[in-house]
Amino acid sequence: MGLLFREKVYGNADLWLWKVEENEDFFLEQLNLSEADSGLLAKFTAPSRRLEWLASRYLLQQLVGGDVSVTYNVDGKPGLVGVDGHVSISHSHKIVGVLYHPTASVGLDVERVSVRPTKVIHRFLDDEEQLLVEKDENFEAITRAWCSKEALFKLLGQHCYTFKGDFKLTTVIQPLSGDAVFFVKPLNLALPVFFKKIDDHVVAYTMIQTD
Fold it and tell me: In angstroms, rounded to a whole number, what is the distance separating the alpha carbons of residues 6 and 45?
């Protein structure tokens, strides 16, 4: 399948999505992996995880126009080695996404629409927030709510934050909502999160200017 989506989105960020249907050889032939990256790839034993990792590096290579390596800080937030800008990476069931901005910190999450978020709703939405998420038989709205908080979590890159305590939904989320607003307690400000529906997946993304 290859490239599913490529577009400038909110704040002039680059959002690219790839559907993985290739084998490892396709990506390995296109990539010039560093010794460190080759070592990291070797740590992944599941074929699906290896393919997702390779696809994300291939997308980044295409996006920045050359070889690229990714490093992770102590909070698990990815960064580009030798390339200016900020990046967020997500993958779900063969869909791999990359969000890039030259000066703003970004957060991206990709999730397949499913019943799964309803089973853990009390872990990421308080009682007031649950009233703002419309119930629908296809679980489109609740998946958007879950994706939003994952994207915000990746934006901040801090494992000490909590979905319920630090990211407060303040607007209604419906099955076809294109955005929602959250009060981000650690930053003391409201941030929008935007949605796209690609195949059977919800894509949520957000950003904040840092430089």
Answer: 30
Answer for the pair 154, 206: CB distance below 8 angstroms, yes or no.
Answer: no
Q: Is the pLDDT of residue 145 over 80?
A: yes
Q: What's the gap between Cα 137 and its chain centre?
A: 24
Fold adopted by 2-108: Ribosomal Protein L22; Chain A (3.90.470)
The answer to whether the CB of 200 falls within 8 A of the CB of 113 is: yes
Strand partners, 32: none
pLDDT tens column, 11-43: 899 999 999 999 999 999 999 888 888 888 999
Non-local (6+) Cβ contacts of 61 within 8 A are: 30, 31, 67, 68
